[in-house]
Structure formats: structure tokens, C-alpha cells
């Protein structure tokens, strides 16, 4: 029987997928969204569809927090890989995204892999927080990775930008979710306790940065690689932090661990298949237009 934390995690994944599809739909009629042009982000707030997507995103955060409050980081966050499964039909119906055989196969692999991970992965032990110096080292290293990925995104194709910016957003979301664990633990002691620690402020800052970077990724018009890379990077970061910093361990016997890890790798591989799909370049998209063309026109095919 599925646990309450897993149910909340899957609900959050659906809401995140719905949010991504709605936010992308709301951004497609606008000029190019860029981190170098803050006013381009402000224009999104005037789009009702985008605001509906943001509301779904906030509700997804509520369910994610509820899941983390009841379950362990390294078992809850991998369930968010199902975001890409939910995003495929939502993207098809809301923004006309093409769903091909590779995407369907990838989604099936994700579901099978997560089923194995959920059944055989049962993290035990662990702690809700880690020493400040360990957090500082972890956050510094992951932010450096984000800077490298963002530099690589310059000059890439729309699909490449969607994937790279999506990866950065996923890393930042993973960091934010990991900090939610100690923050929620402090919240049980009182709001004054939470506000007296740095974790809650870092959580809000990193979550805000992730939100902005994800909007840039979605604005490329390619939902599948954007959502897939977010859905892969987020749980990978959370699992690493859960194991290395929070000392969470999978259940025994050893063969349970092998099956669980294999299932997780299959799920992540399925998401990567979707992110790297080749036929996405054949899709005409408003974001494929060159800088000199109107945003509502696709660039001519060659």
C-alpha cells in the first residue's frame, strides 16, 4: 500500500507538471524571456495562464513539504521524476507538444523504475540537519556547477538551452528541497526558531532562483527536455545530500538495495531519453524564431 508521504509526493509531481505546462503556455506569446532582461520576467505576471500555473506550482510546494515532513528526502524526491510523465499528456493537450514513441517508452521506463525503487527502497537512519560547514561546502560546489552549466547554455539551440537551464533549475530545486528538511523540523519547534536560522532564508533564495531559471527554460518552447532535466537533477541532488550529509541509508538485505538503485537508475534514464529526444528539433515552436523575427512566428525550416 502506498504511503501517505509517497501519495503527497506524487500529487506534488502532478502539480509541478501542470504548472510547467501552464507557465509555458502563458509565455509563448511573449517576446524572448531572458535572465539578462528582468522586465521580460515581469511581463509574465500579466498572463493569466501563467499565473494559474504559478498557483499550481505553489500548491505543489505545499504537497512536497507535507511529503518531506512525513518521509525521508532520498525516498520522497525521486518520486518527482514522475513530473515528466505527467508533463507529456499535459504538454500535448495544453501547448500542442508532440509525444512520440521515444517519449512513451521513456515514460514507461520511469514508472517501472520508480515502482521498483519505491517497493525495495526503504531508507533508514539519517538526521534532519547537518553541520553548517558541510552545508556551506555542498551549496558552494553545486552553485559552481550551476554557473558552468549556464555558461554552456549560451549559443545553444533552443532544445539545448531548455535542457541546460532545466538542469540548473533542477539542481537549485534539489538544494531548496534538501534545506526544507531541517526547516520543517525547526518549524515544529516554533516560527521564532525557524526565523532565527539561516536555512529558511537560503531555501527561499535558492527556490526563487530555481523558479526564475525554470521560466527561462520553459520559454524556449520545448516542454519535454525542460521538465525532464529538472526532474532528473532535482532527485539526484537530493539523494546525494540525503546520503552524504543527512546519512540516510537504503534498507537491507543487500539485494533490496541493488533492486532499488537499479530501479532509480532506470527511472532517471527514462527521463534522460525524453530530454535527449532527436525528433524535438523537427517541431516548429515560437521560441525557435531567430532574434530578428516576431516571437509569434517560427523560423523557416531548412
Account of the 3D structure:
The protein is mostly helical and 302 residues long. It has one domain. The protein is 70% helix and 1% strand. The protein contains 12 helices and 2 strands. It has helices at residues 4-27, 38-42, 48-70, 73-76, 82-95, 101-120, 132-153, 158-187, 191-195, 199-218, 223-244, 254-275, and strands spanning 124-125, 248-249. It has a two-stranded antiparallel ribbon with strand order 1-2. It is globular, with a radius of gyration of 19 Å. It starts with a helix and ends in a 27-residue tail after the last helix. Mean pLDDT is 81; it is low at 278-302.
Q: How far is it from the N-terminal to the C-terminal residue, by CA?
A: 53 Å
Uncertain segments of ≥5 residues (pLDDT<50)? 278-302
What would you report as the Rg, rounded to the nearest angstrom?
19 Å
Overall outline: globular
In DSSP terms (H or I, runs of 4 or more residues), the helix count works out at 12
Number of strand elements: 2
Main sheet makeup: 2 strands, antiparallel
The domain count comes to 1
Which sequence of strands runs across the widest sheet?
1-2
Secondary structure class reads: mainly alpha
- For this structure, the quaternary state is single chain
Amino acid at each position: 500500500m502506498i504511503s501517505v508521504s509517497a501519495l503527497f509526493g506524487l500529487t506534488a509531481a502532478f502539480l509541478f507538471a501542470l504548472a510547467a505546462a501552464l507557465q509555458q503556455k502563458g509565455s509563448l506569446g511573449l517576446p524572448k524571456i531572458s535572465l539578462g532582461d528582468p522586465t521580460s520576467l515581469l511581463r509574465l505576471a500579466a498572463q493569466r495562464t501563467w499565473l494559474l500555473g504559478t498557483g499550481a506550482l505553489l500548491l505543489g510546494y505545499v504537497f512536497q513539504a507535507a511529503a518531506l515532513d512525513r518521509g525521508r528526502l532520498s525516498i520522497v524526491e525521486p518520486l518527482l521524476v514522475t513530473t515528466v510523465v505527467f508533463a507529456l499528456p499535459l504538454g500535448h493537450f495544453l501547448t500542442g507538444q508532440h509525444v512520440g514513441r521515444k517519449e512513451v517508452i521513456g515514460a514507461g521506463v520511469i514508472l517501472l523504475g520508480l515502482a521498483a525503487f519505491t517497493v525495495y527502497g526503504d531508507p533508514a537512519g539519517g538526521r534532519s540537519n547537518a553541520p553548517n560547514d558541510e552545508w556551506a561546502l555542498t551549496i558552494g560546489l553545486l552553485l559552481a556547477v550551476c554557473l558552468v552549466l549556464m555558461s554552456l547554455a549560451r549559443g545553444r539551440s533552443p532544445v539545448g538551452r531548455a535542457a541546460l537551464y532545466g538542469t540548473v533549475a533542477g539542481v537549485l530545486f534539489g538544494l531548496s528541497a534538501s534545506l526544507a528538511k531541517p526547516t520543517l523540523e525547526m518549524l515544529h519547534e516554533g516560527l521564532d526558531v525557524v526565523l532565527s536560522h539561516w536555512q529558511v532564508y537560503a531555501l527561499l533564495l535558492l527556490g526563487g532562483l530555481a523558479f526564475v531559471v525554470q521560466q527561462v527554460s520553459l520559454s524556449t518552447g520545448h516542454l519535454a527536455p525542460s521538465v525532464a532535466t529538472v526532474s532528473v537533477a532535482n532527485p539526484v541532488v537530493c539523494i546525494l545530500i540525503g546520503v552524504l550529509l543527512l546519512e540516510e541509508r537504503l534498507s537491507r538485505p543487500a539485494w533490496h538495495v541493488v533492486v532499488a538503485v537499479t530501479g532509480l537508475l532506470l527511472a532517471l534514464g527514462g527521463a534522460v531519453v525524453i530530454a535527449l529526444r532527436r525528433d524535438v528539433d523537427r517541431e516548429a515552436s515560437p521560441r525557435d524564431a531567430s532574434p530578428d523575427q516576431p516571437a509569434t512566428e517560427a523560423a523557416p525550416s531548412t
